[in-house]
Amino acid sequence: MTQLTVTFDTPVCTTQIFAERTGISVRTVERLVEDGRIPILPKQKKTERTLINLIALSQSALDLYQPPKPRGPRPRKAVA
Fold it and tell me: Of 63, 64, 41, 59, whose CA–CA distance to 51 is shortest?
């Protein structure tokens, strides 16, 4: 069984910081949030800053993770 350890300096970040860390433009991050592909914390007001939920995003990635299948020895070629 594969064991993964994920550490965070913070459980949430703004779209601007997320864009800087991932190298994605802020507008693309906003589109991904709108599409529901990046989870955010619920907002109480429309004017609140969008906070990306890094814990939920990591859990989603871990749920999709499939460890590579172990490689066995290669079959030998028959010599004629």
Answer: 41
- Nearest Cα neighbor of 50 from 36, 60, 63, 64 is 36
User: What does the pLDDT look like over 14-57, one tens digit per residue?
Assistant: 999 999 999 999 999 999 999 999 999 999 999 999 999 999 99
Which residues neighbour 51 within 8 Å (Cβ) at sequence distance 6 or greater? 12, 13, 14, 40, 41
3-state secondary structure (DSSP) of residue 51: strand
CB distance 39 to 51 below 8 Å:
no
pTM value?
0.75
Dihedral sign for Cα 58, 54, 25, 51, please. positive
